[in-house]
Amino acid sequence: MDNVRIQYGFFMGNRFFLLLLIIVSTLILSGCDNAQKAGTNYLAQQMRDPDSAKFRDVQTVTDSADPYVQNICGFVNGKNLFGAYSGEQRFVVKVFTGPQKSTFTPLSFVVEGDDNQSRRATKDSNKTTHPQTLFEERYWNKLCITNERKPTYSGVSWKTPFELCRDKILSSIEIKGDVPVVEAQSVGGDTILEWYGDNEFFVPTSTPHEMDLHSVRCVVNNDSGEISEFHIF
Asked: Higher model confidence: residue 41 or residue 203?
């Protein structure tokens, strides 16, 4: 009889634990669903046509720095000014849920840019085996990684302003020696490099054993990553 009571108590205890586990799991999933809904609704309202917003592969990740914040990560598409869908972009929305996950307040959002500057690899990851865009470095690979979602490295490699100007110089004039490194100046959205004085270039002339001296001014637009001005004097 005692054995029967012990076994009955054991099975009842397991049933209670299983029921508790189901309830807790349901509450957690419900909290994640509500956080996702709050995050996607908030992001949709920031778009030009909120009703056109389409979301895909949305996941919820607890913020490593604040357990009361959920990072809502996924892909969004919406209509542009001309009424056409502009293409999917990755996004991250931070949602405050509180200790009980009973409140769902969007805190901030960021959407990946689709311009050339946004596609470029960061300075530290450029020309490495893991070229990250700024969005990947600051948000996606930092806040959105799970067992199912791995880091991405889609940064496009690029040349520095010096490399661009050096290549332009070498393709424009025949110089003696290498292109020396000069100090770059940042003015507005441009990077300016100038070779003059001690850094002028010796260029062969049609007369044997004679050289001309030439200075160079090269301006690179930081947004496009292309040379906007190039002058040889």
From this structure: 41
